[in-house]
Amino acid sequence: MASKKKSDPIYSLNIFHVYDEKTKRNITIFLVQTIRIFVSFRYEILLENEIIENEIRLHIKGLHVPDLLMPQTGPAQGRCNYEKLEGLYNLVVIKQDKTVNEFSIRISSTSVEILKKPKVPFIGVSNEPVNLL
Fold first, then answer.
1. Does any domain span residue 132?
2. The pLDDT of residue 4
3. Residue 21: inside a domain
């Protein structure tokens, strides 16, 4: 009997703090990107999000062709910005095919900690900041 190959994540999620010059407040950014690099366009990942008590849900709804069809190379991206997140959260990420990954994260005013990850994630989670374009 052949053993199943561990599948690599197809998305990455970076959770980090940024100071927003417009609102003069710190925000927590959840940036979802595809691992795959697209060579024609920089697609947008459609995300739906909700927070219910201490659970953050991110639904990955698919890719969207950008309105401005300028040739660009890079991963598809989608992001959610949150103000005033603090505490211990259960993070639930759901793909289009209803596959679910659950994480445990702790957010303070200065840091984001990833406390628990699934054994076979389709999305890799990191607290490393990413340059926003």
1. no
2. 44
3. yes
Q: Which two tokens stand for residue 32?
A: 């979802």
Burial classification of residue 101, based on how many CB atoms lie within 10 Å of its CB (0-12 exposed, 13-18 middle, 19 or more buried): buried
In a domain, 41, yes or no: yes
Count how many domains the chain has. Answer: 1
pLDDT of residue 66: 73
Q: Residues 96, 55, 10, CA angle at the centre, nearest 5°?
A: 35
In a domain, 49, yes or no: yes
Eight-state DSSP code of residue 128: -
Domain span at residue 35 reads 11-120
DSSP per position, 17-76 = EEEETTTTEEEEEEEEEEEEEESS--PEEEEEEEEETTEEEEEEEEEE--SS-----EEE
Average pLDDT over residues 26-55: 93
Task: Pick the closest to residue 58 from 101, 9, 105 (CA basis).
Answer: 101
Task: Flag whether the pTM goes above 0.85.
Answer: yes
Q: Can you name the residues that pair with 78 across neighbouring β-strands?
A: 32
